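Cross-check.
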Amino acid sequence: MRARHLLTAAATAGSGAIAGSIGAVGVAAYFARRVVTPEPPADDTTVRSFTDLTVTLAADAATTAPGRYGLWATGGSAHVRLGEVMSVERKEVTRELLGVDFGELSVGPARFNGYFYAGPPAQSLGVQLADVVVDGPLGGMPAWESRVLDSRRWAVLVHGRGAHRAECLRAVEVLDALGINTLTVSYRNDPGCPAAPDGLYNLGLSEWQDVDAAIAYAEAHGAEDVQLFGWSMGGATVLQTADRSPRAALVSRLVLDAPVVDWGNVLAFQAGLNHLPPPIGRVGQKLLSSRRLHRRAVGLGEPLDLARADWVTRADDLTKPVLLIHSRDDDFVPFGPSQDLAHERPDLVRLEAFDLAGHCREWNVDSERWERLVRAFCAPQLVP
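Predicted model, tokenized:
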């Protein structure tokens, strides 16, 4: 009788362990899918009131940060530029209203971000942008082009995951002043672009081909020197481009803003933010890279070689000078791997640390410093 009870208990415990394992894999698969699934940007604040000179928003760490920012409102049909904080009280923050780019501001849900410039039809940038199409491997991809008379120097600007090419416009004025043409690109899965075959992000491991197509566009229009700029996942994409592009010889340098230089580290960090136990985060990474399970568990057309996207481990493979701009308090892409990469390759990587900028908002917090760094790094006399 005692033996029978022990066997029954063991079987019950085993079933529970199996069910728990299956549940853990399910959670890991859901987490992995979320990482690679394109999602439209969501409203993250509320316009409480506004005047001709000010806008009052719900107060949080983002909306009370120092600097200049953009605000999408009225269902995305209006974009305004916001200046410094004027007051914070009763869980509300009032900021300067620097200008309305288009649309009509209204009370209600809104999206606060670092896109200080909205792009056409807005005219606040001060540099003329032309709508062009880059012929990518999957089809035409809309881009914005700015040209400097007779310049052979180009910069290709690449936005991050879930972002929009307007994210990159903060770099255009300083590059124009340096005599550098710019191509602000979109890539697969962006609005107006072809979807990837699996409809998912590949974390830069396939998107680099679209950036390579942008380099080809610049070359066809006379480029003899190309600089690559990347924000967040755009940084990961730019690193893959410099490493794998057949046109890499044209690339003279990289400017990376809050870049993903080690996807394994970022995925572990994001798992922690979502209160997932470390083992589940590791299983999620394995599902993304597994040759057997990538399609069934996550939906990926091809497994992701995350080791190829670990530039701390691959530091010896870097061949281009890098200006790496990153905030110590980045709450999305950890600062640590950027610091580690700069330590591993001090001959090529110049790390400039910011504070209070969060993710990809270093320009917003201190645009003078950001532009000074870019100006010095990208100056004409540095071209080989």
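The two ends are 84 Å apart (CA to CA). The first helix runs from residue 2 to 36. Passed to J.P. for a second look.
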